[in-house]
Every structure is written in structure tokens, then in C-alpha cells.
């Protein structure tokens, strides 16, 4: 019995798609391994291969956004770098694409919130203020979808802390002349609540511990800051930036050495 050509073609197409999907999945696994090995550039390359095979892969898309941020953050914010600015813009694109592919996925909303924050470093003051509301909105949506998303708690903790670190005059100007009414939602208490939750959910995360310690330093709560700074210098290195974070923690420990808590 001869099999019609159309049936053979359809079968071959199905096998081709299955093979491509499997290969895309393998590239995602290799990207995860590369990220764990602190090689985000290699990881991103694998995700690009995965997306070349399956452009609608939600996981490959949000992970690509995260790895773009891992690459960009290796260049300090204080350094002028068009290359870093470009990779942050790309991270934001991947975040928006991930949310479009899967609006109910927490990871996509997290990546978008974090990427907007990173990309905002290249924007004007007015644009940063405008984008602050979107960062918060996307992060809150991520937590609605996954209440245990520790990286999102970090985003919200930092969002509150960065606004509170602005001078009173700057916050006043932003709220009254740049449309930054959302700044009224920021507080040191919220910064602590969100960052403590991030640490609770992922206590071995050096970045969480460091940023929580920095908030305590800002508040003059040096005894609590020391607890977390000592955690940072003793935790195992996992993220590409962990060695830098450990250096920062060691510096802060020296800086606050002998300081008593404010008001004590």
C-alpha cells in the first residue's frame, strides 16, 4: 500500500518539530548549567540557540532576559558604557516578550520589573520616575502569581530603599513636578519587610543578604547589619557578581566597625 505524499510530509514535519523542541530544551538546560557556572555569556548563547529553534519558548525568553542582566551588571553603574546600556535594553525586551508569551508566568513579570529597573539607569530623571510605577506594578503582579518568588521580594525591597535614599528635596520634586506620586508608597519599613522576606526564602543568596545589610546600615542598625554582612563573606559563591558583593560586604564591615546603633 502506497502512503500518500501529504501524509509522509506531515509525519516528517511532526518529527522535525519534536526534534527541534527537544533540542531547544537541551539548550535551556545547558544555559542553566552555564549560569550556575557563572558564565552568563555562554548561557545567553544557548538561549539564543533555543529561541532560534522555538521563538515562542517562554522559559528561554525570560531566562535570556535574566542572563542579559547578569552580563550587564558586571559593568558598574558609575561607568559610562553603551554596551551595558544596550544589554539592559535587550533584557527589558526579553521581559516584555516573556510577559506577552505567558501573562500568568511569575518569572516573566519578575524579569520585566528587574530589567526596567536596570534599563532605567540610562534614562532621564523624568523617565526614571515614570518607569518606577511600572517596576512596582510588574513586581507585585509576579508576587500575585508566585508568593514565594524570592527575587521579586528583592526587587520590591530595593525599589523602596532606593526611593528612600533620595534626598527629601529630590523626592518632593519627583512627586510634585515629575508625576512621581507612586513615590508616596515607598518606606523604609516596606524595604525591610520585602528584603527580609527575600532572605527568609533564600538565605544562601549573597545579594539578598548584602542589600538587607545595606538597608540596616542606612537606618543606623549596625548590629543587625553586621549579622548579614558576616553571612555574605562566608556564603558560597554562586552568582557571577558574588565575589564583588563579598568585597563590598568586607568594606562595609570595616566602615561600621565599632559603630553603635543609632539612638543607643
How does this model look, in words?
By secondary structure, the chain is mainly α. The chain has two domains: 59-186, Alpha Horseshoe (Serine Threonine Protein Phosphatase 5, Tetratricopeptide repeat), CATH 1.25.40; 203-264. 74% of the residues lie in helices and 0% in strands. It is built from twelve helices and no strands. The chain has helices at residues 5-36, 40-53, 58-72, 82-101, 106-119, 125-145, 150-165, 168-177, 188-201, 206-218, 222-234, 242-255. Helix 2 (40-53) runs antiparallel to helix 3 and helix 10 (206-218) runs parallel beside helix 12. It starts with a helix and ends in a 9-residue tail after the last helix. Residues 8-21 have low confidence and may be disordered.
What does the main sheet amount to? none
What would you say the CATH architecture of the largest domain is? Alpha Horseshoe
Number of domains: 2
Q: How many helices? A: 12
Instruction: Quickly name the level 1 CATH class of the largest domain.
Output: Mainly Alpha
What gyration radius follows from the Cα positions, in whole Å? Answer: 22 Å
What order do the SSEs take from the amino end to the carboxyl end, as H and E?
A: HHHHHHHHHHHH
N/C terminus separation: 92 Å
Task: Note the topology.
Blueprint: H1 5-36, H2 40-53, H3 58-72, H4 82-101, H5 106-119, H6 125-145, H7 150-165, H8 168-177, H9 188-201, H10 206-218, H11 222-234, H12 242-255
Helix pairs in contact: 1-2, 1-3, 2-3, 3-4, 3-5, 4-5, 5-6, 6-7, 7-9, 7-10, 9-10, 10-11, 10-12, 11-12
Summarize this entry quickly.
The protein has 264 residues and is mainly alpha-helical. The chain has twelve helices and no strands.
